[in-house]
């Protein structure tokens, strides 16, 4: 009986020792897994904290209050259409399939930032008259954004250029065949707009055969106040 009891004690002891060893290994593995999980969480949190913030339309810095963020680009040769974005709303782009050869125009409410209209006018094979009528119909207080694609100047006449100059453009008088140009102005402005980029078509400096490089521009448009 004593020998049987001794054996039982040994078996129980071995069982308990084995259980203890297994539990210790299990706990160590659990601790290691938990440590890995927490380390990953910390790394993810650090990555999120260091990731640069995204601003409206992808501009480089946030606009102050009572300003509208915008970003725009001219067309690339006669292949990639222009793009106009205001307040994170893409108004015109090749993806939206609402751009075309010539001058692309988007109108935005100067008080609310809401889009009003978008059209393109073919200044190579089209007629300038509809463009002139459109320019004359723009209401005071409207933000006007323009971008060229392919050629935006051949059919422009003095009247059309004067109407665009009245929106705040300085470069429109010099806009030539296949120049790249982006402009943001407004109806009823009293000064020249600071938002304008223009690259001349020059065979010695053109990035693409027959066309200059794309021009891009971003900024913050002051909200119209009553």
From TrEMBL:
One of its GO terms (cellular component) is extracellular region. GO terms for molecular function: carbohydrate binding. InterPro entries: FAM3, ILEI/PANDER_dom, ILEI_FAM3C. The keyword Secreted applies. PROSITE patterns: GG_LECTIN. It is found in: Secreted. CDD domains: ILEI_FAM3C. Residues 101-188 form the ILEI/PANDER domain. Pfam families: ILEI. Keywords: Disulfide bond, Lectin, Secreted, Signal. The keyword Signal applies. It comes from the Eukaryota. Belongs to the FAM3 family. This is FAM3C protein. It comes from Cochlearius cochlearius.
């Amino acid at each position: 009986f004593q020998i049987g009891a001794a054996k039982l004690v040994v078996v129980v002891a071995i069982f308990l020792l084995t259980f203890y060893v297994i539990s210790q290994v299990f706990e160590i593995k659990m601790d290691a897994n938990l440590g890995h999980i927490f380390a990953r969480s910390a790394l993810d949190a650090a990555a999120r904290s260091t990731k640069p913030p995204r601003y409206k339309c992808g501009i480089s810095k946030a606009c102050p209050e009572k300003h509208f963020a915008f970003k725009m680009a001219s067309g690339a040769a006669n292949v990639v259409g222009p793009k106009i974005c205001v307040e994170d709303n893409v108004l015109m782009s090749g993806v939206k399939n609402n751009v075309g050869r010539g001058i692309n125009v988007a109108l935005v409410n100067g008080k609310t930032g809401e889009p009003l209209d978008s059209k393109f006018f073919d200044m190579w094979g089209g007629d300038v008259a509809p463009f002139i009528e459109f320019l004359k119909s723009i209401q005071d207080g409207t933000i006007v954004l323009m971008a060229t694609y392919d050629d935006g100047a051949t059919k422009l006449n003095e009247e059309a250029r004067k109407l665009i100059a009245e929106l705040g453009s300085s470069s429109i008088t010099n806009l030539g065949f296949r120049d790249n140009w982006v402009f943001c102005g407004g109806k009823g402005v009293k000064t020249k707009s600071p938002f304008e980029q223009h690259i001349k078509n020059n065979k010695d400096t053109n990035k693409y055969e027959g066309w200059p490089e794309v021009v891009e521009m971003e900024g913050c448009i002051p909200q119209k106040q009553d």
